Give the backbone structure.
Amino acid sequence: MLFLGNIEAKIDTKGRVFVPAAFRKILQSSSQNTLILRKDIFQDCLVLYPSDVWEEEVSKLRSRLSRWNKTEQSLFRQFVVDAERLEMDANGRILLPKRYCQMTNIVSDVRFLGVDNTIEIWANEMLEKTLVPADDFSARIQTLMDNDFQND
């Protein structure tokens, strides 16, 4: 699954929002009607994981952390405790729980971003604050790709 796009949407008064049609199509073609919602670790946005992707991520994390190490078990617990299972309704909507919206300053206008195998949900004004200026972005990509090319 590869999600691409930057799509604006509105949350209704009950906290429901339509998953953009382009993303719904990918999810439905992969029989992924169950999504896992979690606040991003680094940014004030929400991340939707198709259930298969979530299971892979949890398995990967579990394989690196010992259940018998107090600190590592706490890290694992903290990662999974903030996750919630969501089902798309027949119209392609999901219900965003209020606590998640409060954590990320989401009120009504949001953007869905396709980011590899996950979908991020941002409050419009929050997304703009996190983007790197265009000149910095191009310089960083150039440096990254030049270093990668030199290492080949």
Q: What stands out?
A: The radius of gyration is 17 Å.
